[in-house]
Amino acid sequence: MDQPESRATDREPLFRTRITELYGIRLPVIASGLMWLANADYVGAAVNAGLMGFMTSASFPDPNDLRNEIRRCREITEGKPFGVNIGVQAADKDAERISRVLDIVIDEGVRFVETYGHNPEALLPRLHDAGIKVLHKVPAVRFARKAQSVGVDAVTVIGAEAGGHPGMDLVGTMVQAGVAARDISIPLIVAGGIGTGAHLVAALALGADGVAIGTRFLVAEEIWAHRSYKERLVALDETQTALILRSLRKTQRTLANEKARLVAQLEREHGGDIDVLFPHIAGKLTRKVYETGDYEQAVLSLGQSVAFADRIEPLAAIVARLEEEARAALARLDRLRVVPRATETGFEAMAKQPQRGRG
């Protein structure tokens, strides 16, 4: 018997949206860049399953490592296009790093870039001159409006349910999607709490062109993190995340673990003192947890859609389930629809009239 993932990818596309057309993909789903985790294996698996994936450039501090990972991903996808995720910082000292990343991305013929953080306007001329399409990720619709005005090709708007940094406003994904669909004219992706195919259908119904998924994919076999960490995720429900770092105006939704509780306590006692907080939120701690599986010892970005991460399996199998769930959601909607009766013809109406006897 065929595996579910092979059956799904052999089918005709279920949706056609501006996102499937922009990226040339089967499903309007973006596999979000995951710090330390979005390497060639993850991104390649996403692309081969019919999605678009973005490799996180910040996960490879050595430029040569990033270049090699891009080349490895190209081998995995057999030449199919994929993307690279680039964080945009305000500090001038970061300009040199970004310039090196752009050199590599352009030299290697990468066709898609996902940016996040500050305004990407300064990067756009160089990227567009190279024929690269730019997706910018934001935590609020007002930032999406700005990104649209400076010329990005598509935007992702993140709701409060998302893991990582959902912003200070913490507006839920349903509301974010509705407002963004009203105000944004370029291709629109929504994210935050997206964990099933029914969520995809709902986002499209709200006016989005696609969704981005991160947390749901953390239990994919292609994610290199320790199995003990993934097993912990499988055991969680939607209530077991925490919000921290609001004192730094960098709200982060994380796994509700010992480290998150400690950081929250330090924020109450010391406010936004970065010198106090940094030793507990440094990225090297997160990477170590992914290596060791000791999930209590670092701040670990995690969204509420962990509730749907119910087993460890290949990413293609997760995608196949998402597609089956989307089909089931569409079928349910069809069953719920009230179909108007066909308009009767004049002759049918006359036939129902009582016949008068002749005088």
Output the radius of gyration: 23 Å
Under CATH at level 1, the class of the largest domain stands as: Alpha Beta
Q: CATH homologous superfamily of the largest domain - what is it?
A: Aldolase class I
Instruction: Return the CATH architecture of the largest domain.
Output: Alpha-Beta Barrel
Going across the biggest sheet, name each strand in turn. 1-2-3-4-5-6-7-8
* Range of helix content: 40-55%
Q: Descriptors for this entry?
A:
359 residues, two-stranded antiparallel ribbon, 15 helices, TIM Barrel, alpha/beta, 43% helix
Descriptive account of the structure:
Helix content is 43%, strand content 13%. It has 359 residues and is α/β, with parallel strands linked by helices. The protein has an 8-stranded parallel barrel, surrounded by 5 helices. A hairpin with a 7-residue loop joins strand 9 and strand 10 (252-255). The longest helix is centred in the C-terminal third of the chain and has 22 residues, at 315-336. It is globular and about 70 Å long. The relative contact order is 0.13. Mean pLDDT is 92; it is low at 1-8 and 355-359.
